[in-house]
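New to this. Look over this protein:
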Amino acid sequence: LASGESLYDYRKTGMLYRGAKIAVADNQYPEATGFASDRLFMILGSGGCMLMHQRVHEMEKYLGLVDGVHYVSWTDLDDLKAKIQYYLTHEDERKAIAEAGTLECRTNHTFEKRVEELKVLIKKLPSKTKKKTISAMLLVKDEFDELPRVLSQLQWADEVVMVCTGKESDQDILREILAEEIRKAEPPIKIDYFEWIDNYSSARNYAKSLC
């Protein structure tokens, strides 16, 4: 089991979910339609754990996730308590839903799938809007070995903005690792640094300011 802080530590978070039978997620915007945070996909993609998510309007329509098949929805705390008790005592049902949710997520909700969807949407833009206006934004800590693969999937963008959130010296390491990619980069790559202050939004907003 993982221990300690796991905010945006995806490996550790995945370990936590795989070590649990049920992961409970609430809905920050109860009146919204089709809302889903990245937590939903992290839970489903980790495997082994059943997602119990507060009800979201038209989740099936927009995400293809079916209540009772890929996850279990709940409305209020009494409903949540009753369903937790039920699925903890009906292991076969819980496990079947967990496995179906994981398969659906890993098949239809990967980064690769999202990239392909973006490519289709960009091609549908009116010709007058197809100017160099689209940036791909990456926050990078230490997963440097994954970057060439990620960059190969960003050919649809007009520039790549890459912000290091680890040590300040990491941006120099990053430039050295990607020297060849940067030299021949199409789209061009910008590299910068943001000191991590335990606030994902601040790092994201800084990166967006460079786009």
User: Anything to note?
Assistant: The CA atoms of residues 201 and 207 lie 10 Å apart. The chain has ten helices and six strands. The longest helix spans residues 91-108. Strands lie at 22-25, 50-54, 72-74, 135-140, 159-164, 189-193.
